[in-house]
Amino acid sequence: MFRTKKSIICRDISDYAVNEELITHYVPKAGDVAIFEVGEIGRHRNIQSIDKRNIPIMPGDLLIATFADRYATSQFEGYVPSEAMTTVHILSAGGAIGIVRTKNASLEDVEPTNVHIIGYLTEPDGSVINTKFRNIPRKTFRGEIPNNAKVMLSIGSTMDSGKTTTAAHLARGLKYTGGTVAFIKLTGTVYTKDKDYVYDLGADIAIDFSDAGFPSTYMCDEQDILDLYQTLLDQLEPHQPDYIVMEIADGLMQRETAYLLQNKDFMQTIYNVVFSCGDSLSALHGVGMLRNMGIQPAAISGRFTMSPLLIQEVHSCSGIPTLTIDELMTGQCNAIFMDESVALLAEKI
Length: 349
Known about the structure:
The protein is an alpha/beta fold. It has helices spanning 163-174, 193-201, 222-235, 255-261, 264-267, 280-292, 308-318, 325-329; strands at 5-6, 17-19, 33-38, 46-48, 54-56, 62-67, 76-79, 87-92, 96-103, 114-122, 150-156, 181-185, 205-208, 243-247, 272-276, 299-301. It has two domains: 5-122, no CATH class; 146-347, Rossmann fold, CATH 3.40.50.300. It contains eight helices and 16 strands. Helix 1 (163-174) runs parallel beside helix 2 (193-201) and helix 6 (280-292) runs parallel beside helix 7 (308-318).
């Protein structure tokens, strides 16, 4: 037999038993781990393995992965099954498994890769292994930032608006201050590309929700996300960061993003905000939405800054500094992000 392939979200899973009987009646939860046999290949032909390599999968391969919900406007929308099922779908290359509900029109002729449940992985007491907070203890949200670091929040109008690129170049620019820069990706679906990219551009440490065992954060309770935030912050304590660049996935109207931006306790931990957009209209409308929440971005960036004309239009209409990735990465605009915290703005608007 071929060796079993373990997805990146299951990297810390070692000692386990396989319970094949559960597949007939057990209803999985997000984070539950199972072993699957790959069936018909569709969208996903590779998975990200525990050493971060993208490895091919073939029909008949055995795969260890986790159930999860996924929000992705340009990919698949999918959910953990609400009943016991034997055939499910790969939702993401990081090892998120569920049932596809909708997909972007660009994938009209592309079907998800099917996998068949062989059995659930169980603990010594017989319970199904769940990756969430399994190897990193859950910390209750208390709003404490290690070393009183300045948290710079990277948000965007939609998926693929440039949030990660903005965050990575901002992290590189902040390194010119001589301080220690950390990166957190708080929400999203498991795949380490984003945090690895920010680290490679200069962040001293980069972590994300999957380090706490979350295959995704979609459909998580608000308290779960807040506790996840504190858990990741506490992981940065030994590094004593001066700056934390943090990204929240997807757009302003996405479920978890919306309730975090409207949570006063969360926003009181944020020092400044950079807003990424794909075009001028989304930039201006998004700024209006943020101002209605009491949030004034320190700067606007994103894909639209590839066009000097769009930069001029957005800056003239918004009055907010509009920065290219070159301006972010050279540190020449760091002073913009050293302004007073966003939390104070709510009292002024």
